[in-house]
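YM 10:42: DUF2382 domain-containing protein sequence, as discussed on the call
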Amino acid sequence: MSIATQVATRVATQTSAPTAAPTAARSDDRLHATSRLGRRVQPPLTSVIGFSRERHLMSTNVSSGRHAAPVPEADEAASVVLHEERLSTSLIRRPVERIRVERYVVTEQQTFTVEVRREEVRVTREPIDVASEGEPADVAPAPRARDFLMTLNREEILFSKRIVPSELVRVRVGDVVENHTVTETLGREQLDLIASPSPAPPRG
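YM 10:58: structure's back
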C-alpha cells in the first residue's frame, strides 16, 4: 500500500468518529480555583460543565496526522461564589462582683452650748428715818442672830444619748451603658486562576 493510500485511510477513520478526541480533551480542561484562605474553592456543577464544554475545530494535518488544539467558545464562562467573613456581636450577662451593704457606727465629737443658772446673794441696804419712826422705846431689844445662813442653788448639766432615725437610704441597681471597641481580623476569599494546559491527543 502506498503512502497516499495510508494517509487517506487514516483521515477517513478520524473523520468518521470525531467524538473520541474531544472527549479526552474535555475531561482534562478544568478550572482550578484556589482560595487565599487556604482552601480549594469548588465551583458549581453548572460552571464546570459550562467551562469544559468546548467547540473543537477538527483540522487534520495530512503530513503529521495530529489534531489542532481545541478552541473554547468565547460566550461561555464559569462562575464561582466567593465567601467572606463577617463579624456578628451578641451580648450575654455575667456576674461581675458581689456587693454587701453593711451598717456601721461612725463616732464624731460635737460641742453644744447650754445655758445654766445659779443663785447669788444680793444685799440691799435701806437707811432708817428716825423722825418718821419716832423715838425708840426704852424697851430692851430682843437678841438677834448676827449671822444669816442661806443655801444657794445652781443648775448642772445632765446629758443622755438616745438613738433616733436620721435619714432613709434606698439602694437600687441600675444599668450603666458604655461603648466598647472590638477589633477582629476578618478574611475574604480571592481567586487565583491557574490555567492547566490540555495534553496533546494521542497520535493516531
